[in-house]
């Protein structure tokens, strides 16, 4: 069968959404629809979860819960994902979409609310996909609360291609650029991590903690 393009081929074969995932994506409105992950990124997160035998996940930035559900679907029965959303409208949307006992949604600013689960550390995986200005703060928390061999994953780490360019695109702030460059630089340290910035549409940095 012919396909529209290479992504269409890949998605049809390897990244088919469950009816629930499709419904979440289709219910996600306007701008929010464009800032969620893609199906192939959801599948990649699932693969990482299976490969690293991940049981506990922290997600910073829930949005509609689409990425949350992709990850929850790959967790074993006794696995759990804690997901943090600051925006009340997005949190309400996620609450309507997520119904698994494997998922805990925490509403509020993660800079304040992450401490509510610190006692449950160390975690197996921490997925950072929230406001880009605070990526370094989330990384500070992640580095303290991830287990050895655990995964720290950051979305949008190409920062709309600003991260490698000389000139700053209109939509990107200088402070966010500096934060993202430092975020990647820290995760690129081979003494601390086995890591790579994968060139997905938005860039996804994946780091396995060495110690
Ligand atoms: C934006 C945020 C995201 O997490 C994303 O994946 C894409 C875009 C944004 O804020 O524009
Ligand atoms: Mg993102």
Tell me the domain tally.
1
- Strand order, main sheet: write it out: 3-2-1-4-5-7-6
Q: By CATH's scheme, which homologous superfamily applies?
A: Vaccinia Virus protein VP39
Structural class: alpha/beta
Give the helix tally. Answer: 9
Question: The biggest beta sheet, please?
Answer: 7 strands, mixed
* Termini Cα gap: 47 Å
Shape: globular
Radius of gyration: 16 Å
How does this structure look, described?
- This protein has a seven-stranded mixed β-sheet with strand order 3-2-1-4-5-7-6, with helices on both faces.
- The model has no long low-confidence stretch (mean pLDDT 96).
- It is an alpha/beta fold and 211 residues long.
- The protein has one domain: 3-Layer(aba) Sandwich (Rossmann fold), CATH 3.40.50.150.
- The longest helix has 14 residues.
- Helix 4 packs parallel to helix 5.
- Helix 8 links the parallel strand 4 and strand 5.
- It is 40% helix and 21% strand.
- It is globular, with a radius of gyration of 16 Å.
- The site of 3,4-dihydroxybenzoic acid has 5 residues, from loops.
Topology:
Blueprint: H1 6-14, H2 19-27, H3 30-35, H4 39-51, E1 56-60, H5 66-74, E2 80-85, H6 88-97, E3 103-107, H7 110-113, E4 123-128, H8 135-145, E5 146-155, H9 174-187, E6 193-198, E7 204-209
Parallel strand pairs: 1-2, 1-4, 2-3, 4-5
Antiparallel strand pairs: 5-7, 6-7
The structure holds 3,4-dihydroxybenzoic acid and magnesium ion.
